[in-house]
Design brief:
With 112 residues, the protein is of the alpha+beta class. Helix content is 22%, strand content 57%.
């Protein structure tokens, strides 16, 4: 009985680690969306790199770092030396990445 419980726990841990690693690998690359700025349609892209850094490109380019914990994604940018965290829940389905926080939903499409 103890061996069966140990095996079940080990399998659960391994599957949990695999799921986390899979999400971290799936987010890598460049994702784009359309955004309105002052009434003008602009393209915004997010590039997530394997080392936990990235670039948000659009009207302005901004470097960021990111962390993932389960279905939570935190993007940290530095504005005038002050770190600003944007916390989202995320979902990846095929070539679509959906970021959600409070009353905002951003739908991005993979480009690479």
């Amino acid at each position: 009985m103890k061996k069966a419980v140990a095996v079940v726990l080990l399998v659960a841990i391994v599957l949990g680690l695999c799921a986390c690693t899979l999400a971290e690998k799936m987010i890598l690359g460049t994702w784009k969306t359309q955004n309105k700025v002052l009434g003008l349609e602009t393209e915004v892209s997010y590039t997530f790199k394997e080392d936990g850094t990235g670039v948000r490109s659009g009207v302005l380019d901004m470097d960021f770092t990111y962390t993932m914990d389960g279905d939570r994604l935190t993007i940290t940018t530095s504005v005038l030396g002050v770190d600003v965290d944007e916390e989202y829940t995320f979902q990846i389905s095929g070539k679509e990445l959906v970021l959600t926080r409070e009353s905002e939903t951003i739908t991005l499409v993979r480009v690479d």
